[in-house]
Amino acid sequence: xxxxxxxxxxxxxxxxxxxxxxxxxxxxxxxxxxxxxxxxxxxxxxxxxxxxx
Length: 53
Known about the structure:
The chain is an alpha+beta fold. The chain contains 1 helix and 2 strands; from the N terminus they run E-H-E.
């Protein structure tokens, strides 16, 4: 969507880390709905940068 809006898009930072308190509390819910793999307790955080062309 950023590119469609005319921005140059890049990934500024990326890291994988353990779930924080909110996702830890919701893990069973997310597993039951197939939104995460059973036992998954790590997430990838990505910072997306959009610069005007």
